[in-house]
Amino acid sequence: MREILIMTLMLLGAGLIFLAGVGILRMPDIFLRMSATSKAGTLGIGLILSAAALHFNEFGVYTRVIAIIFFILLTAPIAAHIIGRAAYFDGVPLWEGTIQDDLKKHYRITDHALLYSGEIPPEEILVPQKEADDFSEEPE
Amino acid sequence: MDILWNIILLFIALGYVGAFIRLLRGPYLPDRVVALDLISVIAMGFIVVYAVRFNQVNFLDVAIILTLITFLGTVAFAYYLERRI
Asked: Where in the sequence is the domain holding A103, given as residue range(s)?
């Protein structure tokens, strides 16, 4: 019974990690890729760690697993947010099917402060959609 | 039971392949940083599955350290990307 539960959790976690790999490969845009990997990856690793805790069934392992899951739940959204913010300032273009960009014309170019568009002089507005990096290949 | 373990490891390995292809193809630097982040998460899953399969409790400590280092690396990359322009 316990074995069945462990194997089910492991299979679900492995499937979610596989979905994260598919998502990062197939999504059209860095922001969509990030939303696929951070959610599916966090849930998958959480399920695998729960299976490990059930398998070992010791106090030390439960403590470690809870610490790891708590830390991942704490850091994965922060890391995704920081990378998304840096990518937006770096000028990574959005997917052409995007219908709304709420951050457009709301950032000041000098210190990346978020302001209402009336408060910024027009020459200081950050224009996020620029060309690719010097050392990257041509975008597809 | 053995074939189930093989299926689990195969799923994780396929996810690893997808993240690695995205790491190679880019096309921008933040894409590669996200791919590296996912690769370290997948490596952590690999380590935990291995620890359960071969009954080695000590490998869970590696997962803890990998979590910490991944977060610090991602933050460092993001800081570098934001300062670069």
From this structure: 98-128
Residues A115, A62 within the same domain: no
* CA torsion through residues A112, A135, A80, B57, sign: negative
Distance CA(A117)–CA(A125), nearest Å, equals 8
ipTM of predicted complex: 0.91
Mean pLDDT of chain B, nearest integer: 91
First to last CA, chain A: 50
pLDDT at A96: 82
Residue B35, class by beta-carbon neighbours within 10 Å (0-12 exposed, 13-18 middle, 19+ buried)? buried
Q: Judge whether A32 is closer than 8 Å to chain B, CB to CB.
A: no
- pLDDT tens column, A90-104: 878 888 888 877 777
Surface of A (92-131) touching B: CB under 8 A: 92, 112
Chain B nearest-CA residue for A62? B60
Same domain flag for A14 and A80: yes
Name chain A contacts of B42, Cβ cutoff 8 Å: 17, 20-21, 41
Q: Do A79 and B74 touch (CB under 8 A)?
A: yes
Q: Where is B62: in which H helix or E strand?
A: helix B59-84
Domain co-membership, A102 together with A80 = no
Q: What is the pLDDT of residues A46-72, one digit of tens each?
A: 999 999 999 999 999 999 999 999 999
CB contact under 8 A, A49 and B63: yes
Instruction: Please indicate, yes or no, whether residues A61 and A8 belong to a single structural domain of this protein.
Output: yes
Q: Are A105 and A90 in contact (CB under 8 A)?
A: no
